[in-house]
Amino acid sequence: MASNEQIINETKTFINIETNICKSIYVHIPFCTNICSYCDFCKYFYNEKMVDDYLNALEKEINAKYKNEVIETIYVGGGTPTSLSYAQLSRLLDILKKINVDNLEYTVEINVENIDEDKIKLLSSYGVNRISIGVQTFNEKYLKLLNRKHNKEQVITAINMIKKYISNINIDLIYALPGQTLEELNKDIDEFIALDIPHISTYSLIIEEHTILNNNNVENIDEELDYEMYKLICKRLKEYDHYEISNFGKIKSRHNLTYWNNEHYYGFGLGASGYIDNIRYTNTRSLNNYINGKYIIEEEELDFNETIENLFILGFRKTNGINIDDTLNKYHINILDIDIVKELIKEKKLLVENNNLKINKDYIYTSNDILTNFLGGNYERYIQE
Ligand code: SF4
Q1: Mean pLDDT over each residue of the chain, to the nearest integer
Q2: Which residue, of 81, 112, 141, 196, has the greatest Cβ tally within 10 A?
Q3: Could you identify the atom of ligand 1 that is nearest to the CA of residue 111?
Q4: Any residues with CB less than 8 A from the CB of 27 and at least 6 apart, and which?
Q5: Which residues, at least 6 apart from 329, have a Cβ–Cβ distance to it below 8 Å?
Q6: Residue nearest to atom 5 of ligand 1 (CA)
Q7: Annotated domain spans of the chain
Q8: 147 Cα–ligand 1 center, Å
Q9: Which ligand 1 atom is at minimum distance from the Cα of 38?
Q10: Looking at the domain that runs over 21-260, which CATH code has it been given?
Q11: Ligand 1 center–CA 311 separation, angstroms
Q12: What is the pLDDT of residues 212-262, one digit of tens each?
């Protein structure tokens, strides 16, 4: 009879084979033509020469790391990918054309101030079939506070133009803006709904260190008002599937589901993160190091317990939670056997529905309190033969 240790080792080998199939790629383009006041992303002010050097380095990184897997989702984010000139955007798309793809969801983030019909036609001709637009708000006062350079008319014109070529569009909505009222948010939601877009991602503004807002001593809004705003968004976006804490879609983002399903993905580019061969890695944020081929600054190989911890932390972001059978097949554990799961079900904080374990929607807003229960757990002891 196999010892417990043997079973654990066999399961780990199985996980390595079964879960290491990588079907997704994230590519970071860290250039912007304008710096927003709330931004703490990895970005540089656009510079033509810097972008040319960066694209050469990006191509080298992809050539060095990509192992010709068949990829099903590519997400080009930033920064602002469309801050690149037409020729640079073509070069980027050519680099990514070498990737083997099948049934591809291909997303590119854009900002309306640097998109035109020629760039959209170009993206579409290379197979880009999903666009994500940083709209944030239509309120002039808050656009100014966020240092965004577009206005409502430009957004509507851009969206109508994009729809001629690519219909699968996401727009970002930022709420909990300093001074914002529920009425102002409601008006933004009215205008977002009127755009008739298949996906809306929402973000509660958190003022991070090293941002212009923080330097100007602007403070986050009251937590209770933030919660009221979250509830208002959930109530108003009823026509959308509220499939993740902050995401609402008539068409879901397959790429983002890769993250929430704890699946493997490449992260290419400055500051990008990836998850390959059970190793979570983060690339350098130093443009100099990156251009000189020193890509990774941090990597950590996950053991079984950490893999399951991530499964919970990420999987509970989805409103329909974690599939019980999938977890049994993939990791050889029945999550309903886990003591803390049993306790949280008893407290009605977790629910079992349609063979999924999920957070009760009354606790979604405070889900972090529930998630902390899953940190540092010993899950190996639940492995089944
Ligand atoms: S466009 Fe995006 S990445 Fe660039 S500064 Fe604004 S928020 Fe940051």
Answers
A1: 94
A2: 81
A3: 1
A4: 58, 74, 75, 76, 77, 92, 96, 268, 269, 272
A5: none
A6: 35
A7: 21-260
A8: 10
A9: 7
A10: 3.80.30.20
A11: 29
A12: 999 999 999 999 999 999 999 999 999 999 999 999 999 999 999 999 999
